[in-house]
Specification:
The protein is α+β, with helices and mostly antiparallel strands and 107 residues long. Helices cover 42% and strands 15% of the residues.
């Protein structure tokens, strides 16, 4: 219990330092966490950086639900929309924007 409270406090304090898109997936029937609690935290993010998906009739352990595959698919689709993949591997922004000497000579 105390570890969870400390983690929640830390995540609220560290939120201004998070510089990547954030996805929170929450079951509406969760009995351990208030299903609407993440919305307040996400409101603190810049427009479009925080994403909240509410899954009806789901509990706390979303990947242990009978329809866990649809939950996983939701996460996969969110990732695919935000993380570029080239040649079967994830690439960083630096890799995508860096030009090689060969590219410079063809410009």
């Amino acid at each position: 219990f105390f570890s969870m409270k400390a983690a929640l406090k830390a995540v609220w304090q560290q939120r201004p330092h998070i510089r990547c898109p954030v996805l929170i997936v929450q079951g509406t029937d969760d009995r351990l966490v208030d299903p609407l609690a993440p919305e307040d935290w996400l409101r603190e993010f810049d427009e479009g950086a925080g994403h909240f998906v509410s899954l009806p009739d789901r509990l706390h352990e979303l990947l242990n639900e009978p329809d866990w595959r649809s939950t996983a698919q939701t996460v996969i689709e969110w990732l695919h929309a935000r993380v570029p993949v080239e040649s079967g591997r994830v690439t960083s922004n630096a890799e995508r924007t860096a030009e090689t000497p060969e590219q410079n000579s063809h410009s």
